[in-house]
User: What shape does this take?
Amino acid sequence: MDVTPFVGESLALDLVNTRPQVSAGVIDLVADGDGLRAWVELEKDRLQDVSSTDLASISADELRLIHSVRAHLATALDHQMRGLSVPAHAVDGLNAAMRAAPAVHRLDWGDPPILARQREGSAAARLAALLAEDAAALLAGPERQQIRKCEAQDCVMLFVGNNPRRRWCSAARCGNRVRVSRYYQRSKSP
Assistant: This one.
């Protein structure tokens, strides 16, 4: 299976999707600093507050901030998709990550004046807060009702099903494998 990070959904879903299923089981694409920096580089157009170079010397404790946001979001999404109430600890965890690196507005007086948004804290705290903020927006918004799991049997990826006919995280990744497998099963049968 392709272990390239699945990107293109909301940042929050892209983060959850950094734990894909492979033949050996679930792997973590952001298990270490190198993996996180590679993922941040893929998402750089949407991460103005943090760059991969900002995370050059990320500590294990700082990496746990990102993993914590992902775990709280995964719990919330799992409950949401099963029609259950989202546990308070998941909501509290996301709120704590946002509080750890608050975003403030600042007026930069120039020609023209600019209202800029700036986030406080370490690079890892800023990234965790940004991801938690995106997660909160997803969970509080209308798209939360459209989040689906890929229908490929060996895939755990999530996506927003804006199109009711969409069944796979990626037609090229999982859709093609499912179609080839069905064709093989039909041609193998007597």
Summary: Helices lie at 11-16, 33-42, 60-81, 88-100, 123-140, 171-188. The longest strand covers residues 103-108.
